[in-house]
Amino acid sequence: MVLFLRRRVLSSVVALLGVTIVVFFLARLTGSPALVYLPQGASAEAIADFNAANGYDRPLVEQFFSFLGGILRLDFGESVWQQRPAATVVLESMPQTLLLAFVAMSLSLVVSVVLGTLSACTPSRPPTRPSRSSRWGWPASRSSGSRSSGSSSSR
Predict the structure, then answer these.
(1) Which bin fits 149, alpha (ψ -120 to 50), beta or left (φ > 0)?
(2) pLDDT at residue 80, rounded to an integer
(3) 8 Å CB contact between 106 and 97
(4) What three-state secondary structure class fits 85?
(5) For residue 118, what is the DSSP state?
(6) Residue ranges in the chain modelled with pLDDT below 70
(7) Contact 50, 56 (CB under 8 A)
């Protein structure tokens, strides 16, 4: 059991590291973040100052390891847009996010129970066929092996 848990934790860490690497470098593909946050007609000096103040003038690998070190210390940096700690910005919007997730899950539960009940009560009606299919619009395959005796009758 301990070996199983160790493997699961290790694979989770590897997956998180992989996602972190992909997200970090994909976010940098768009170019300098200064072009996103500064006004469109910003001078080259303003762009250079912004890059220096936020560490975007350093090599990409150095930026990544600095970012990773911050995550390990639970320091998620400062929101460039709001000039406040990023963790505070995220935690302030958490109640609304959880409410939205709860409403979405409740709505999907109600819809799925209603469609499942309709499908069970009226299996041959057209409105319930999509809810019984493996792909929308395709009829579900029926297996006749579970109710038959297994031998075919011959004349």
Answers:
(1) alpha
(2) 79
(3) no
(4) strand
(5) H
(6) 126-155
(7) yes
